């Protein structure tokens, strides 16, 4: 470790640098009690699958008591487990079983807001003189009786909700059932630090911090200016820039406090959610390592899938990283369309190779390892409050949250009853059981990629160097542990030939089509449509 708390190039990599994070959306992973919703016992039952897959850490989206207005991101009690998911004893058993298998557990920490059913908010709204009033953001109406300013909710409409009983508005960056906490209040900071300690003492290995860039808002509550880049079809929330509601300078102090607390336990990780431009993402590493260890890099979620877009994006991200800042990559998550839905099943294999061979910690979304696709949700089955509030713009998140496809049984091995969200229509063909038997399946590929990372330090933690970005060819080198590997990806549907005259000969370690292993490459490399390869170069 360097003095700043980040890894330096001399020391052994930390677990979260060399490792791969796997995101479990707990409602949809495995149901064991027959209510159509996944649970902690289900995650425990699938730990052997995850260990065999070859991931290192499991990030579990919120499992706390919640009215489920936003499916757990509306926390009503930070220090307990929702009965839907199980009990604290189930959680302890899960942590112990994960650790026995060498897997880490990362929890979702939701600091920006609570549920409106949380006792803190119930007290806060009880009266203007309640001691918890200022734990949330209350403002008087504007002179016309309307909201105090123009701030908009991410999930549609004004971000202000009027409370008739006390004559003031409260601020909610998301649903009105998710009032924002006031992180300028020292008691809020202390209470939320206590929440972190509660879980750290139970042995969790880190936190993914929800909506981190939202946590502090402008102290003067100034109006947000219009967003000049707004156009029809975008989330209506984007009509305004987020100048005064997000990424405020004071958020760095909040983060430094969280980081100091977590570091005092040793060996844990903090991952921050922030949908921001690259230069701002870089700022969340903090000064002298007092930021989060991994500010999520979401650039691949929305980048056009072309070499012309991806090559400069990767280079710009690498260039933006501060000294000691460790990179990370995300292809899919519970808020964005599935990668196989965006790119199709063939290119999704290339995307998996990209995710798992770039420099930095990858986050793999559950189901992507078998190529689960975006599922069309019939209107009567829509669950997502975002889609309900802002319909018709394709913003709904249910299609990326459908049940894990374990086998070809009636409910895909996920449950014994109709699940809370529809199963993908292809679940009889696309599932773990079928793919475990197929030598060329997406699951076989994902396992092979994860095994390759584990056996080649050059991929897990080595240096990265761009090599070629022409036409549909994206190629780069990974170097470390006395090895040099070439990654060559065909992002298109036509065959291509890459000239590698300047490189030594090598042998193919892996193709996205799961063949060609051991094939010699010398001077030129032919790639089939939608094929990527990793080549070990001689010398
Ligand atoms: C980001 C989470 O990923 C998303 O699912 C949630 O709705 C919002 N934050 C609000 O917590």
How would you describe this structure to a colleague?
The two termini are 30 Å apart. It is globular, with a radius of gyration of 23 Å. The longest helix is centred in the middle third of the chain and has 19 residues, at 339-357. The protein contains 15 helices and 19 strands. The protein is 26% helix and 16% strand. The protein binds 1-deoxynojirimycin. 1-deoxynojirimycin (NOJ) binds at residues 70, 73, 110, 174, 210-211, 273, 334-335.
Secondary structure blueprint with pairings:
Layout: H1 15-18, E1 21-24, H2 40-45, H3 47-53, E2 57-60, H4 88-100, E3 104-109, H5 119-126, E4 138-139, E5 160-163, E6 168-171, H6 186-201, E7 206-209, H7 251-263, E8 269-272, H8 278-283, E9 294-295, H9 299-302, H10 307-320, E10 328-330, H11 339-357, E11 361-365, H12 385-389, H13 432-437, H14 442-455, H15 457-461, E12 463-470, E13 473-480, E14 483-490, E15 496-499, E16 506-511, E17 520-521, E18 524-527, E19 532-537
Parallel strand pairs: 1-2, 1-11, 2-3, 3-7, 7-8, 8-9, 10-11
Antiparallel strand pairs: 4-6, 5-6, 12-13, 13-14, 14-19, 15-18, 16-17, 16-19
The structure holds 1-deoxynojirimycin.
Residues 70, 73, 110, 174, 210-211, 273, 334-335 line the site of 1-deoxynojirimycin.
Task: Quickly describe the structure.
The chain is 26% helix and 16% strand. With 539 residues, it is α/β, with parallel strands linked by helices.
